[in-house]
Structures are given as C-alpha cells and as structure tokens.
Amino acid sequence: MAGGITETGEPYSPFVGLVYMFNLIVGTGALTMPRAFATAGWVVSLALISFLGFMSYMTTTFVIEAMAAANAQLRWKRREQEEIDDSDSTSEYSDDDVTGRGRSEPETKPILSVREYQRSGGHVDHFDIAERVEMGQMASMFFNKVGVNMFYICIIVYLYGDLAIYAAAVPISLMEVACGNHSCSAGSVKYNDTDPCWGSVTRKDAYRVFLSMFTLLLGPFTFFNAQKTKYLQILTSLMRWIAFTMMIILALIHIGKDTGEGHPPVASLSGVPNLFGVCVYSFMCQHSLPSLVTPISDKKRVGTLVFADYVLILGFYVLLSFTAIFCFASSRLHDMYTLNFTDNCNVLDIPFLRYFLGLFPVFTISTNFPIIAVTLRNNWKTLFHRDGGTYPWVVDRVVFPLITLVPPIVVAFCTHNLESLVGITGAYAGTGIQYIIPACLVYYARRHLEPVVGRDAINKHQSPFRHAFWVWFVLLWAASCLMFVTANIILTDTKK
Q: Residue 5: in which H helix or E strand, if any?
C-alpha cells in the first residue's frame, strides 16, 4: 500500500471486476458480524448496516473520481516534460523560426500534448483511468506533507489491527478444534479459557501455543517479499464461498424445521458502537480500489458495477447475519461464526464438514497474513523515507520487519476477543480510511485540477455525490462516530 505508480496488471472484464471486488470486501469481518447483530438487535443492525453500506459506497465513488483526477494530473506532468524536451530540440532553430512558432501558439495550454493527441487518433479522455495510482501516490499528489504523513499513519494503524485480528483468529480456530468436545452433546457446553484442553494445559495455554506456532511459521515471511498468486487466490476464494454457502443453507434448514434457538432483541443500543466498527471493517475496500478498478477493460459502467456490488454485499451480510441470529441463541454465538458449527450436531452432524468449517479460517487467513505484513513493512519504509536516502541493512532487513511483526503478536497474546479487535480497528483506523481520506482526496483533487483543466472539463468518473455538501457530510459523520465510540468506551470502562 506504499504510494507509487505500479503496473496496471492484466486487463479483465467488468464482470470479473465485480467478482474481485466482492471477494475483497467479504472477508474476516463477515464472520464476526452475526454476534455483533445479536448484541445490537436486529432492527438497529439492519438500519445501521444499510446506512453504513450507503456511506461506504459514496466514499468508494470519491476514490474512483480521485483516481481519474490523478491520471489527468499525470498527463499534465507528462505534457510539461514533453514541452521541455520540445523546447530543447527547437533551440537549434533560428530566432525567426522560434518567433514564428511563438506567435502561432495559443495562450491557453491544453492538458494533453499534440503528440499524445495524435497518438490517440484525435480524441483523448483526460480522465481515463489508464495508470494504476495507489492511494499513497494520490495523497502525495493532492495533500501537503502533514496530510501525507497522517495518511500513512492511518494506513499503518489499520494494518496493525488487521494483523492482530488475523493473528488471533487462526489460533482461536485451532484451539476450538483441538480442545473442543466434538461429540453431539457439546452444543450445550460453554467453555472458559481456564478449562482444561490436554491434561493440565488450559485452553488459554493451548491458544498461546498455537499463536507461537503461527508466529514461527508465518512470521519469517515478514523479512522477505511475499505475494498472493492467482491460483492461491482462486483456491482461497473457492474455500470461502463453499463455507459461507454451507453456513447459510444449514442455518436456513435448522430455522425451517422450527428448531431455531435464536430470539434476538429488537434493539440494544449498548451494542451499537461495536456493531459500527464491525460494519465499517466489513465494508472496507477503498485502500485496494486502484488495483481493482484500473485493470477493468471497459470502465464505462464502472459506477453501475460498484453499485451492484454494494447491493449484493449488503444482501449477503444481512442473509448471513439474520440466519445466524435466529438459528443460534445469542449467548452461544462465537466471535468467529464458523465455530458455531463445530460443536452443535443439531445443525451439522457430519464430522468432516464440522472440521472443515472449524479450520477453514486457518487456511484462508494464513495466506493473507504474510501479504499484509509485507505491505505494512513497506508503508513504514515509505513513511520514514527521505529523497536520495537509503536505509542501513540492519534497519531495512531487521528493524522494519520486527516493528511490523511484534506489536500485533503481542496484542494477540494479550487478548483473543475478535469482536473487540474488529470493532476497534474498524471504528478508528477504518473510519479514517473509509471516510476521512476519500473525502479529503476528492475535495483536494477537485481544487487542484480546476485551475489546470478548467470548470468545463468533464470527468466521466465523477461521483454522483458531486456537491461539496456530501464531502462535508462524510467528514461530519466520521467525526461524530469517533466521538460517539470514544465516549462509549470511556463510559463503559467507568462503570466497571
């Protein structure tokens, strides 16, 4: 996620882009959503997730508009460079030739050079998203130095939260499978961290053993470069959708037999702050939009594509969460929803499938951890980088990987409360990435480009929410949410 212009990648169709965006957004956050729904009440949850989905869609259109503006800015820079090159080449002409050329040039300079105009066959879309410009690069183009640093700090905090969530989720799943009673009488048993797992080893000890193994196996990847291959992405996506489909169908069958145990409240305001954080985290995609949107071959309907994706994702989240809260009693819902199927034979009595659902987060999350860790490490490097400077070998290969890996592992050792980790990450860093940064990017991109391209230039990727009111509305909403969540945490801790 470090800023920079990267290769666009192999082009793909709009439909493939829709699938990729769906897969990007629907991840770990979806597994923590059922418990958050049960805590906040089904009416409140439905209203809040619908509104947050709308807000996330709005800021996604802001980022796409900013991407188009960044491409226009790059064309302007390229034109300026070509003018410099042309002026160098024309210095060989006589003074009369230069004077003649100067009289025939228009005073208003176009954003595209004549050379680029001719290459395009006489028509160029100034705002065509042809180059992949990551959010860090857009921040460098449109923000001042303080804004750029704040952007990277926000991204870093979010990635730390992501790594802590992943570092806790895998050992939790392994602990539940290894320590849980998988007999058909286990559905009525509620385990505590102090309960025995193997002899004198408690469940909490087992969790920390699995966390240590997870760190030793995947931690070293932080010291190298890692990337997710196409085939690994296909495999993890396939496993994820088999698991999600199974959970929805099994819950629907259980409810259809009139054996559902869930009786969620209509509304419980005490659960709203955590639900807010979970929902923000679960709609997160803004930081990866450049790598998703740029390779789409036909971008004429990219706005429709994004809208359709959000409608589908909202429907999926509501279906997954509602089937969960009416199938299982609220007190029995795990932080990781898949674990509800490992100890309840009334819902799933096939041992192999119960183990599959219990272990599926282990495979999918483990493949993401090294990539996110390397991304965080690179962002640290970018934040402290100075032009022309290089890092000593020890700092580059040891210090940066260690400050990337150690904090989330320490957090995971101290707590395995996934619902709280997701809620806090989404409520704070998620608010910055999903609301504040996109609103600021589009605001400053508009101000930055207006003197260059003029008011009459048409950005075909302009957000439907083009009025400045929407930018200020998003910023006001973000500030209100941060204050509300912070006040709730303080009041909750005061009552304890």
A: strand 5-6
